[in-house]
Design brief:
Blueprint: E1 5-9, H1 32-35, H2 39-42, E2 50-54, H3 55-59, H4 70-79, H5 81-84, E3 95-99, H6 115-124, E4 129-131, H7 153-175, E5 181-186, H8 191-204, E6 208-211, H9 219-230, E7 238-241, H10 250-255, E8 258-262, H11 265-272, E9 278-279, E10 284-285, E11 288-289, H12 297-304, H13 310-328, H14 334-348, H15 355-364, H16 366-369, H17 373-378, E12 384-385, H18 387-417
Parallel strand pairs: 1-2, 1-8, 2-3, 3-4, 4-5, 5-6, 6-7, 7-8, 11-12
Antiparallel strand pairs: 9-10
Bound molecules: zinc ion.
Zinc ion (ZN) binds near residues 372 and 397.
Length: about 425
């Protein structure tokens, strides 16, 4: 089975290499745009095959600002994506795909961007591939395949709109002799309706098709859609899954023609998830919450209300960090570290008892066994849920492990198929 390519959606999450984990200070000479590093610069080889850059993240939308600062945005347009993400100087093989982030405008009647401006964005910035302008069908009902007359008019309208935008997109692409790879988007509300979109996109001329709007769907629904689409897909058509992460199903998806997908989950779970913060090949660990006294809103409120003494809070925070570090270095016991963490959590008013989970994390010492550049570089700091510098690095670590999980999954399927 050929490799399934993984694209990581960019959200300008970088780390500062000058950050000192003991003093928590940065180099005074740090220039963010010059010195901060992307995951593909921290981890060698890069943990993904490419980046996905969404237009709303860069440009915002009418009334909504993007994630890029004005300066970053101008630099991206001026330098193009390859230079902006520093891919050129490293002879990197990473590809950059663009899309319109259709979920950000799902509530609008029409997409906020014209085909012309999107084609121009991809071409001017030097993208390798670009997804046509689309509009998400916000609903799923497989029973409608048996009663097509009950399909809500709005769903049909959005599907047809996406198809006509795809046709226009390809016309502009040809007329302007663009050199990025055009990708059409299939939307639908059921297996048959998705398959119909795939068929039409192929007849328009697309050989790479992104399956859109599937983020809210459960795995069985995704599987049925892909099975239905498989009956329509030509052998030279490639499917991309927008925003879908299911490593354990990827070999099944690949049999249906999926050759690429994108997802932020491995990265964001590092600091958004309740449990799966630090990935290992077979499971995951909870990261240990040690918020900064000064950076924690709840704690600051308690201090301001006179309910918590700030010096006392600082002392518990320091004990907590020291306890964990001493344990990691083999200088003190696990229970001493856990006690210090528990005492600090109690002060923070943390209602969840995570003692068992924290014990698991510390006892198994996953940072010692991981071969990624982050764990080798910062050790136990990687499992501390504390500030962007640690949390993002743990996200990078997860991307590294995720890539390994994918490789293992697809290698297994190779053995099984042969
Ligand atoms: Zn690691």
């Amino acid at each position: 089975m050929s490799r399934v390519k993984f694209y990581f959606p960019d959200s300008q999450d970088q780390v500062d290499p000058s950050f000192d984990f003991q003093s928590e200070e940065r180099s005074p000479f740090r220039v963010r745009q010059r010195d901060d590093r992307y995951a593909h610069e921290v981890l060698r080889p890069p943990p993904y095959d490419g980046l996905l850059v969404s237009k709303p993240i860069v440009d915002g939308m009418p009334g909504v600002s993007g994630k890029y600062t004005e300066a970053q945005r101008h630099r991206l347009y001026r330098e193009g994506v390859k230079r902006f993400f520093r891919l050129e100087q490293q002879g990197s093989q990473l590809e950059i795909m663009g899309d319109c982030g259709a979920f950000t405008y799902v509530r609008e009647d029409e997409p906020p961007y014209s085909v012309n401006e999107v084609v121009d964005f991809y071409q001017r910035c030097g993208f390798n591939a670009g997804v046509s302008v689309d509009h998400v069908v916000f609903g799923y009902d497989p029973h409608l395949d048996a009663s097509p007359s009950d399909v809500p008019a709005e769903w049909t309208r959005r599907q047809q709109l996406t198809l006509s935008l795809a046709a226009e997109f390809l016309r502009h692409h040809r007329k302007n002799q663009c050199d990025f790879e055009p990708i059409g988007v299939a939307h639908g509300w059921s297996p048959r309706s998705y398959a119909a979109s795939v068929r039409q996109l192929q007849s328009i001329g697309y050989r790479r098709i992104a399956m859109g709007g599937m983020v809210p769907l459960k795995t069985p629904a995704i599987t049925s859609i892909l099975c239905a689409a498989k009956e329509e897909t030509r052998s030279d058509t490639h499917l991309h899954l927008l925003g879908i992460t299911r490593p354990s199903h990827m070999r099944q998806f690949a049999r249906c023609g999926v050759t690429s997908f994108d997802s932020t989950s491995p990265f964001v779970q590092a600091f958004m998830d309740e449990r799966d913060n630090y990935y290992t090949l077979d499971s995951s660990h909870v990261a240990i919450r040690v918020p900064q006294v000064d950076g924690n809103t709840r704690l600051r409120r308690l201090v301001n209300a006179g309910k918590v003494d700030q010096r006392h809070a600082r002392r518990l925070e320091r004990n907590c960090l020291a306890g964990i570090r001493d344990y990691a270095a083999g200088h003190s016991s696990l229970s001493a570290a856990i006690d210090a963490v528990t005492e600090y959590s109690a002060l923070l008013g943390d209602k969840k008892d995570r003692t068992q989970q924290y014990t698991d994390t510390l006892e198994s010492r996953p940072w010692d066994r991981c071969g990624c550049d982050v764990c080798r570089d910062i050790g136990v700091e990687v499992v501390l849920f504390r500030g962007a510098e640690r949390n993002r690095r743990r996200g990078f670590h997860n991307l590294y492990v995720f890539e390994q999980r994918m490789t293992r999954e697809l290698a297994h399927s190779w053995e099984r198929l042969n």
